[in-house]
Amino acid sequence: MTRLLIVGPQGSGKGTQGVRIAEAFGIPAVSTGDVFRAAVTAGSPLGQQVKAIIESGDLVPDELTSAVVRDRLAQADAAGGFLLDGYPRNVAQVASLDDFLEGRDEALDAVIELDVPREESIARLSQRAAEQGRSDDTEEGIANRLAIYERETAPILEVYRTRGIVDRIDGVGSLDEITGRIIAALEARGLARSAAA
Ligand code: AMP
């Protein structure tokens, strides 16, 4: 049973590392950004609600986001643990996640903080914009999302730091190096990788 959260600025590689770590620990990776983008692509009611917000780089309202996450974590595959990517993203969402997990007698085991300098994040995001054409990877979208990260998301790390569960990981290096650093930090906490991985 491993319950993880990965936090980092846009362009830190948290999505890629999140999937790798989830695989190593045999748990599902739950990315709110992916859920919202899939809903937009599908044109579902949720997608119609969030499309303009995502394109501007603003945050989807907390209540809607928390409801989406609760639904996802209630699915059977998340009963044995999960890795959250992109949620919580502000302190109000931390409180909401705390409530939900306390109701299940659960808590996060570790928070992975991917540390990447601002210039490096911007360079990686611009490259992704050129390669993938994500609709929020415009210059304004990128600047807005990084500002929101610094203002709203970075403070959640202070909350989790007081609980002693944050592992700060140097996010500059090859994909394999960074995955190795994260796994070493989690193992040092006594969290075991799944036998299958
Ligand atoms: P991401 O892929 O994590 O960068 O998320 C892409 C976009 O989805 C964000 O810029 C927000 O518009 C929205 N989003 C993702 N996670 C959240 C969240 N926890 N709270 C509010 N909005 C979110």
TrEMBL record:
What keywords tag this UniProt record? ATP-binding, Cytoplasm, Kinase, Nucleotide biosynthesis, Nucleotide-binding, Transferase
The family database entries (InterPro entries) matched by this protein are listed as: Adenylat/UMP-CMP_kin, Adenylat_kinase_CS, P-loop_NTPase
Its main subcellular localisation, reduced to a broad class, is cytoplasm
- Compartments (UniProt record): Cytoplasm
MF terms from GO for this chain are: AMP kinase activity
Q: In which pathway does it act?
A: Purine metabolism; AMP biosynthesis via salvage pathway; AMP from ADP: step 1/1
Binding residues for AMP, per the UniProt record? 32, 37, 58-60, 86-89, 93, 134, 145
From the UniProt entry, list the residue stretches annotated as the region NMP: 31-60
**Cytoplasm as UniProt keyword:** yes
Pfam families from the entry? ADK (PF00406)
Q: Does the keyword Phosphoprotein apply?
A: no
Which EC number(s) does the record attach to this protein? 2.7.4.3
Name the residues that bind ATP: 11-16, 128, 173
Enumerate the HAMAP family for this protein.
Adenylate_kinase_Adk
Subunit structure, interactors included: Monomer.
Record note on domains: Consists of three domains, a large central CORE domain and two small peripheral domains, NMPbind and LID, which undergo movements during catalysis. The LID domain closes over the site of phosphoryl transfer upon ATP binding. Assembling and dissambling the active center during each catalytic cycle provides an effective means to prevent ATP hydrolysis.
What the protein does?
Catalyzes the reversible transfer of the terminal phosphate group between ATP and AMP. Plays an important role in cellular energy homeostasis and in adenine nucleotide metabolism.
Give the UniProt family note.
Belongs to the adenylate kinase family.
* Record protein name field: Adenylate kinase
Q: Which gene encodes it?
A: adk
